TrEMBL record:
<dbReference type="GO" id="GO:0051537">
    <property type="term" value="F:2 iron, 2 sulfur cluster binding"/>
</dbReference>
<dbReference type="GO" id="GO:0005886">
    <property type="term" value="C:plasma membrane"/>
</dbReference>
<keyword id="KW-0001">2Fe-2S</keyword>
<feature type="compositionally biased region" description="Basic and acidic residues">
    <location>
        <begin position="1"/>
        <end position="16"/>
    </location>
</feature>
<keyword id="KW-0560">Oxidoreductase</keyword>
<protein>
    <recommendedName>
        <fullName>Rieske iron-sulfur protein</fullName>
    </recommendedName>
</protein>
<dbReference type="GO" id="GO:0016491">
    <property type="term" value="F:oxidoreductase activity"/>
</dbReference>
<dbReference type="InterPro" id="IPR036922">
    <property type="entry name" value="Rieske_2Fe-2S_sf"/>
</dbReference>
<keyword id="KW-0472">Membrane</keyword>
<keyword id="KW-1015">Disulfide bond</keyword>
<dbReference type="InterPro" id="IPR017941">
    <property type="entry name" value="Rieske_2Fe-2S"/>
</dbReference>
<dbReference type="GO" id="GO:0046872">
    <property type="term" value="F:metal ion binding"/>
</dbReference>
<dbReference type="InterPro" id="IPR045603">
    <property type="entry name" value="QcrA_N"/>
</dbReference>
<feature type="region of interest" description="Disordered">
    <location>
        <begin position="1"/>
        <end position="20"/>
    </location>
</feature>
<feature type="transmembrane region" description="Helical">
    <location>
        <begin position="73"/>
        <end position="101"/>
    </location>
</feature>
<feature type="transmembrane region" description="Helical">
    <location>
        <begin position="156"/>
        <end position="175"/>
    </location>
</feature>
<keyword id="KW-0249">Electron transport</keyword>
Length: 348
């Protein structure tokens, strides 16, 4: 939107409150400035974009309800994709695009485009600032043609009124558990770890003996059966919950643990997932036994039960009780006693 209404000759109209003076440069009139038919044609184009946006929003709602989530469709280059995901993305994306494209066409074809000059002024607002701001608002309302182009106004209001519906509708997908299924909090509270499950290095999948880890050393580790679970489930959800770090320190340096005797000869195992927003952590300072999250600098003391010593994290790092099996390899003795990953309201 420009700062003034079109002038037949630059500077010929007295300056009004809320209007900047017209620049003394050549200005070419557009076809819509001189031809009423061209202006009406541009108005219909803009209204058509807004109307099509409304129809696509309605199509989104219909597709959300009608298309089964398990249905797939073949798309060249991408291969087989979920039909529901493809149609929902296409309809919502196009609906948003058409609102923006219509607004751009409106501004380029129907709103004033006269070049103006705005003088520098003191940063402090003058006493008349409120009056000038109101005048600017009235000028903008007049120049935009919002009141004059009724077709554009009505279709824009319709498109913007329907636009939030998909956003509200998609809230339903935050959790749609069948009757009797566990809640998200329950799912996130259980990992692959259980008594006797071997701990292997990530990504080489080598079992670990206590003597393999020197004092001050750190190893990223996962459950022995993680690869099989990922292949079966075709996702990495299990990894995001089960990833751990092993750290060895002098047993005398351990001041507190989350359970009695949860270490093995000074080797402690903690979740690798930060309790703030879920970033993976492996920055360990041997001298202080602090574990630092690289995302937001939450710091945890692994010698003091993984408690938070700095940063935005609200919960300590969950500790995994460990021991050794008959062959002398490190194993878990149970699952985590606390939920892993970021905090949220259902965890208190």
């Amino acid at each position: 939107m420009s700062d003034v209404t079109p002038h037949d000759s630059h500077g010929s109209e007295p300056e009004r409150l809320g209007y900047s003076p017209v620049a003394d440069v050549p200005h070419a009139l557009r076809m819509t400035d001189t031809d009423p038919k061209a202006a009406r044609r541009a108005e219909r184009q803009v209204a058509a974009m807004f109307l099509l946006s409304m129809l696509l929003t309605i199509a989104f709602v219909v597709a959300y309800i009608a298309i089964d989530k398990t249905t797939t469709v073949y798309i060249p280059v991408f291969g087989d994709v979920g039909a529901s995901t493809f149609v929902l993305g296409l309809t919502l994306g196009a609906a948003i695009f058409l609102i923006g494209a219509g607004a751009i066409q409106w501004a380029k074809k129907l709103m004033p485009d006269v070049e103006v000059v705005q003088d520098r002024h003191e940063l402090a607002s003058p006493a008349s600032a409120d009056e000038e701001a109101l005048a600017n608002y009235e000028r903008g309302k007049s120049e935009s043609g919002f009141a004059r182009y009724k077709l554009i106004r009505r279709t824009l209001i319709g498109a913007m009124a329907l636009f939030p519906i998909p956003l509200v509708l998609m809230l339903r997908d935050l959790w749609t558990a069948p009757a009797g299924s566990p809640s998200p909090a329950d799912l996130l509270s259980v990992t692959l770890w259980h008594d006797g499950l071997r701990i292997v290095t990530d990504p080489s999948l080598m079992p670990i003996r206590p003597e393999d880890l020197p004092i001050g050393g750190l190893v990223s580790a996962i459950p022995e059966d993680l690869e099989e679970v990922q292949e079966l489930e075709q996702n990495m959800n299990a990894r995001t919950k089960a990833a751990i770090i092993l750290v060895r320190m002098a047993p005398s340096d351990i001041r507190a643990q989350q359970g009695d005797g949860w270490d093995y000869q000074g080797i402690v195992a903690y979740s690798k997932i930060c309790t703030h927003v879920g970033c993976p952590i492996a920055l360990y300072e041997q001298r202080t036994h602090h574990l630092l999250c690289p995302c937001h600098q939450s710091t945890f003391d692994l010698a003091d039960a993984g408690n938070v010593v700095f940063g935005p994290a609200a919960r300590r790092m969950p500790q995994l009780p460990i021991g050794v099996d008959e062959e002398g390899f490190l194993v878990a003795r149970s699952d985590f006693a606390e939920p892993v990953g970021p905090s949220f309201w259902e965890r208190g």
